[in-house]
Amino acid sequence: MAYLEVEGVSKSYGPIKALRDVSFSVNRGEYLCILGPTGAGKTTLLKVIAGLIKPDKGRILIDEEDVTFLPPELRAAAYMPQGYALFPHMRVWENIAYGTLIRGLPLERVWASIKMVGLAHKAYSYPHELSGGQQQRVALARVVSSGSKILLLDEPLSALDLLLNIELRYELHRYAKSMGLTVLHVTHNSEEALSIADRVLILRKGKVQQIGRPDEVYAKPRNLFVARFLGEITVVEGVVRASIDNRSVVEAKGLGRLVVNGSVNKGSHVVIAYRPEDLVLLSSPSEPYNVFRGKVIDVEFEGLRVRIHVMLSKGLESVIDQWFVHEIPFKKGETVYVYLPPEKALIFEYPREGISQALALE
Ligand SMILES: Nc1ncnc2c1ncn2[C@@H]1O[C@H](COP(=O)(O)OP(=O)(O)O)[C@@H](O)[C@H]1O
Ligand SMILES: [Mg+2]
């Protein structure tokens, strides 16, 4: 049995269904990122696991024990709130000790946790004398010193600027691993989740969309929302005209005939998506099919890579990534050809809610 089990948890606030029949399990020592847009139910989920909110339905099991009705202090899970509010009038060591002392834990543990996060030299400073990253570490030391084996971190890095976010996310991951902690790390930043998680759980409107390894969910998103939430995509709508031997021909809106790998029922309404790194820019139509002429409308130089936006037809924009090698290969206004490789197509049933809703990132 897994270390943490969430079984069929639902929670409503009046008419708002914050969690709908959420089930998943987490192994001991695992680093799980819970990813979803604002309002998805991420905070509610962590609070239910921490015991700060009672679910309307469902159970929480930790180490095979049903803790659903246990108070927070009797669970092996510590919740670190979003914004990690440190007490401004308390020094670093007092901020950490506060959480620890009310649990009746020894003071040595406070010092051990201050040292672990590398802030022994700041123990007598006040929060305003620390950088954002240092404050984040104090908050982390506070949950760690509680001695809990499960850390529930609510957007622990979202207040930090990008470089610090990147530095601390790896530090956090390494630290959790070295301590053998089980972590549920909530974020709305897909890149952050994909880069450090052992597994990612994608939550939307209170429902689990998918759970899996970062490379799995990125390569095989279960629906259009997941595909879009994990990164930029080019989206083509169409109807399947023929399908044989794991190959299908789609009548694509704004493009015409498009060949994709995968067997789909003839006549079905589909959405085909491509990742920017999967599309190929050509200066001439040198592939036998799936090549479409377009105009470069934007070139974003990002250092390692160049992201090129190409208008293929009215309302159909494609996004293509290329490695940057010496010079930017295509210029704004230029006519180019875009190749949509059949084996790279992500095929989805047309979403009942409509394409723009599914792509809305909320
Ligand atoms: N105390 C509350 N009372 C009423 N609605 C709430 C309360 N807390 C959260 N909600 C609503 O529940 C939904 C999920 O909220 P939350 O768990 O905070 O999502 P997230 O952390 O993913 O942004 C949202 O629609 C939010 O407005
Ligand atoms: Mg939240």
Structure description:
- With 362 residues, this protein is α+β, with helices and mostly antiparallel strands.
- The protein folds into two domains: 223 residues, Rossmann fold, CATH 3.40.50.300; 132 residues, OB fold (Dihydrolipoamide Acetyltransferase, E2P), CATH 2.40.50.100.
- 23% of the residues lie in helices and 36% in strands.
- The protein is built from nine helices and 20 strands.
- Strands 6-7-8-3-9-10 form a six-stranded mixed sheet, sandwiched between helices. A five-stranded antiparallel sheet has the order 13-12-11-14-20, with no helix packed on it.
- A hairpin with a 2-residue loop joins strand 1 and strand 2.
- Helix 2 crosses helix 3, helix 2 packs parallel to helix 4 and helix 3 runs antiparallel to helix 4.
- The longest helix is centred in the middle third of the chain and has 18 residues.
- It binds adenosine-5'-diphosphate and magnesium ion.
- The site of adenosine-5'-diphosphate has 11 residues, from strand 2 and helix 1.
